[in-house]
Amino acid sequence: MSTLETQKKTQAAVGFFDRSIRRKRNGIIKKWAGMTLLIGVFMLALLSLFWGVLSRTYQNLPVLGVIVVDFDSPTHEAALIGPAVLRAAESRNNLRPPRLGYIVKPPDEYPDGEMQVRRVVYEQEHWAAISITRNATGRLEDALRSGDESFDPDSLAEIVFAEARDESVTRNYLLPYLDDLKSEVVRGFSEVWIPKAVRDEGLRRNMVRVPLAVNPGFGFRMVNLRPFDVPVAIPAVSVGLLCIPPSPSPAV
Ligand SMILES: *[C@@H]1O[C@H](CO)[C@@H](O)[C@H](O)[C@H]1NC(C)=O
C-alpha cells in the first residue's frame, strides 16, 4: 500500500453523527452549549440593567423639575398672562404621574430677569424653565390698543431647555409634557382674555388689524440652549447610558 492510499483511507469522510467520532462530537456540543449559555447570561445581565433604568420612568417623571418664573404679575395690577401660566402649572402638579414637576419661583430670586433664568437651566440646576416677560399683559394690551401689526405673540413668554443634557429625556418626556402644558395655558388664557378684549372698547377697535393679539394672544418662544443635532453621536450616548451611574436628582 502506498503512502498516498493510506492517507486517503484515514481521511475518509464521515458524517457528524458517525459513531467513530462520538467523543469529539460530545466535546464540540459541550463547548457550543457553554458558549451559548455564557452569551445568554451576559445579554440578560446587561438588558436587566436597561430594564431597571426604565422600569419606573413614569413614577419618576416629577423629578424633572421645571421652574416657572412670573415676571408679569408684579408689574401689572390686573395681570392675566402670568397667572394663567401659574394656574396651569399648579393644576398639573396635582395630577398623578406621569407629569413633570413644576416649581413656582418668586421673580425677585432672579433680579437679572430672563437671562438669569436661562443660566439656571444652562447650569443644569433644573431641566427647563418657563419665564413670563416683565409686564407681558401690559405689552399685549398696548399692542392691541395701538394696532401694532408687528406684534409677535411669542415675545411674551419663553420655555428654556437644554436638549444635549440628555437628548432622549428631552425628546421623549420633557417636550411632549411641556406641549400639553402650553395648550392648557393658552386655552385657559383665551377664556379670560377674549371676553375682556371684546368688552373693552379700546381693545376691540383694532382686533382686525392685530388678530394675533386676540387669539392666541400670547405663545411661548422655545429656547434650546444646547441643541443635540449630531445623529452620529446617538450610539455613543445611548449605549453609554448602560454604564454611566445616574446623576443625583435635582431638587424638586
Ligand atoms: C405695564 O404696561 C402698562 C401698559 O403699557 C403700563 O401702563 C405700565 O406702566 C407698565 N408697568 C410697568 C411696571 O412697566
From TrEMBL:
Chain segments annotated as transmembrane: 32-54
Domain DUF3533: 36-242
Any Pfam family matching the protein: DUF3533
Family annotation (InterPro entries): DUF3533, MNNG_permease-like
GO cellular component: membrane
Record's keyword terms, sorted: Membrane, Transmembrane, Transmembrane helix
PANTHER family attached to this UniProt entry: NITROSOGUANIDINE RESISTANCE PROTEIN SNG1
Name the UniProt record assigns to this protein: DUF3533 domain-containing protein
Lineage, broadest ranks: Eukaryota, Fungi, Dikarya, Ascomycota, Pezizomycotina
